[in-house]
Amino acid sequence: MPKTDLNPSLKAESIPDPNRWKALVFIALAQLMVVLDATIVNIALPSAQQDLGISDANRQWVITAYALAFGGLLLFGGRIADLWGRKRTFLVGLIGFAAASALGGAATGQAMMLGSRALQGVFGALLAPAALSLLAVTFTDMKERAKAFGIFGAIAGGGGAVGLILGGFLTEYLNWRWTFFVNIPFAVVAAVGAYLFIREPAGGRNRAPLDIPGVVLSTLGLVALVYGFTRAEGDGWLAASTLGLFAAAVVLLAAFVAVEARVKNPLLPLRVLLERNRGGVYASLGLAVISMFGLFLFLTYYLQIVKGYSPVMTGFAFLPMIAGMITGSTQIGARLMTRVPPRLLMGPGFLVAALGMLLLTQLEIGSSYAGLILPAQLLLGLGMGTAFMPAMSLATHGVEARDAGVASAMVNTSQQVGGAIGTALLNTIAASATTAYVASHAAGATNEQLLQAQAMVHGYASAIWWAVGILVISAGIAFALITTGRPGTTSVSSGDGQGAEDEVRIPVVAH
Predict the structure, then answer these.
(1) 505: which DSSP letter?
(2) Quick check: 109 and 2 in contact, CB under 8 A?
């Protein structure tokens, strides 16, 4: 009598999905679309503002409306992915993002433009955590996981710079509306590919009822935090409106933590956040993104205003950073991830990036691109790429399947909030240093235009010093909190005090 398999379901689940590498292509394409949108609109904004009659006071809302909706709803989007299923949420996010982009490209006025940007943020908050959690549950083999997250990390790290290049091309040679319309083919191809090739493992949903108080408190708290930093850029750090928003954010987020510790089915289970390795990733990654997004802003203005580069030339000027990120992520991070502890990739990676930033503190009006900016970008890209790759994997690895969506959302939340904070914080520092430089040098100046340019570059260099310090802190957090080692450790406690059932299994070889 032939021998039968007593547990065929387990055997089937252990077989890797034969379409997993095809699925990766479409997951990565969707992630690229979301990351591109964070910067591609920046270059097109002056043209869009003129065509649609958007006032100077309201133009920031083209960026802010997206950031508020995206950053504020990410945790909710991650929980929806766990509840609905990641593939379904991924497809809804893609279709909605494409529709919102079409609305933005066809905008006839200010209200239509701002509404479309907010809708993009809403659907992006569904799409981004679904993409990362699909990657986490699709690739379970350690070596394959390293390669997959290497590709994903390179896209997450370098997509913003790619957005500057693409935005420059579309704005200069076509029309600013194409910075929106370009999302439609991305989304259609990704949706068709996802429908055909993505297979979500069974049994990974979290069907518990939604934590409505958690949704409300987290969304309002994150919106207040992001909006507070946005207002600080224009109104000043000590303005009543700014301080009021920060105070509201602290109260709302503290209430959110208190609720999550007590409710039966929390939006963000504290076991996800309090495990020290993932907590270290969220903190170090968020701080590092503060530095990177601030630099995108400064270099874009420096190259276009001080050096006189066109939008396309400016985009190409960021290519060394993209090349460095891809190399660091796929050739360094992915190759070493299965051999060394993640802190020995993340910590040194952030320090190499800090060295690149340190070079840029020497920025002057006459600085050579080849002699200063290019090597600084290469170092920054190599360091960030090397650090991003293990960070993306470690932030989702070892979580229970029911928490994969919300753990993925936390990675995106740390990056989105970090980007919003970085733009506002470093831009405010630069503006203050520029004003102080003009005030102290105005008496002896003979060329006002030259003085303004010198003051602007001085402001950028002053803010970049802060970015250097932030990256060093990121490295310190990675070294101190990320303690997962080489093969041999079987598990770490989640630290939430709820006993063995909440222990988080981490096969360290993956890191």
Answers:
(1) E
(2) no
Quote the CA–CA distance of 89 and 91 in Å, as a whole number.
Answer: 5
Q: What burial class does residue 3 get, using C-beta atoms within 10 Å of its C-beta: 0-12 exposed, 13-18 middle, 19+ buried?
A: exposed
DSSP secondary-structure letter at 403? Answer: G
Phi, psi for residue 383 in degrees, rounded to 5:
-65, -50
Q: Among 51-55, 247-251, 480-484, 487-491, name the one with the lowest average pLDDT.
A: 487-491
Separation CA 246–CA 192 (nearest Å): 42
pLDDT of residue 161: 66
Question: For the residues of 103-124, what is the DSSP string, one character each?
Answer: HHHT--SHHHHHHHHHHHHHHH
* Six token digits for residue 318: 């960021």
Q: Are 358 and 291 in contact (CB under 8 A)?
A: no
Unique residue bearing structure tokens 């990565």: 28
Calpha distance 20→330 (Å, rounded)? 18
Backbone phi and psi for residue 370, each to the nearest 5 degrees, phi listed first? -70, -35
Would you state the pLDDT for residue 507?
31
Is the pLDDT at 498 greater than 50, yes or no?
no
**pLDDT 10s digits, 402-435:** 676 677 777 777 777 777 777 777 877 888 888 8
State the residue for tokens 């509404």.
115
**Exposure class string for 395-421: b at 16+ Cβ within 10 A, else e:** bbbbbbbbbbbbbbbbbbbbbbbbbbb
CA distance 416 to 39: 12
CA-CA distance, 242 to 228, in Å (whole number)? 5
Residue 460 has pLDDT above 80, yes or no: yes
**In this structure, are residues 419 and 229 in contact, taking their beta carbons and an 8 Å threshold?**
no
Query: By the 8 A CB rule, do 314 and 302 touch?
Result: no
Q: What is the per-residue pLDDT across 349-404, written as a single tens digit (0 to 9) for each?
A: 999 999 999 999 998 898 899 999 999 999 999 999 898 878 877 777 667 766 76
Q: Considering Cα of 442, then 446, then 448, then 454, what sign does the dihedral take?
A: negative
Residue with tokens 């030259």: 450
Nearest of 397, 391, 409 to residue 150 by alpha carbon: 391
pLDDT of residue 243: 92
> What global pTM score does this model have?
0.74
Q: Roughly how many angstroms between the first and final C-alpha of the chain, as a whole number?
A: 45
Distance, CA of 463 to CA of 431 (rounded, Å): 9
Burial class (CB in 10 A: 0-12, 13-18, 19+), 142: middle
Looking up tokens 């991003």 gives 388
Residues 6+ apart with CB under 8 A from 244: none
The answer to whether 299 and 373 are in contact (CB under 8 A) is yes
The confidence score (pLDDT) of residue 1 equals 47
